[in-house]
Write a structure and sequence with these properties.
111 residues; mainly beta; 9 strands; globular
Length: 111
């Protein structure tokens, strides 16, 4: 997936089939469902896809839609995905996707 872009306009997101990412590793990114044309969103626990009328409208709380990619040391092309609004990591228990405060800032995987 190409995550680099000079623009911060969500309508100009890079695409990899089902998911688009706008931004680069050093900045905030928007993760967009291509099938639904909606942003990955959270209010601090669960995650879902959300949009209003267009991808140019990031709503009243755009930080809920913005994510940072934090490289995992020693694991090429592997990232922690951290929500800007809540400083929580995108996580899963194997079934449900949610955000969690349980992430390792020193980038060492727990396993």
């Amino acid at each position: 997936m190409d995550i680099s872009s000079e623009s911060n306009d969500p309508s100009e997101a890079c695409s990899d089939g089902d998911v688009s990412v706008l931004g680069d590793e050093m900045s905030r990114v928007y993760i967009i469902s291509e099938a639904h044309r909606k942003f990955l969103d959270t209010h601090g626990k669960d995650v879902w896809v959300w949009s209003r009328h267009s991808l140019l409208d990031t709503g009243r709380c755009p930080d809920n839609l913005r994510w940072r990619l934090h490289a995992v040391e020693g694991k090429p092309d592997t990232y922690y995905v951290i929500n800007e609004g809540h400083e929580k990591n995108l996580n899963t228990n194997g079934m449900n996707v949610h955000v969690s405060a349980e992430w390792y800032s020193d980038c060492r995987c727990p396993n």
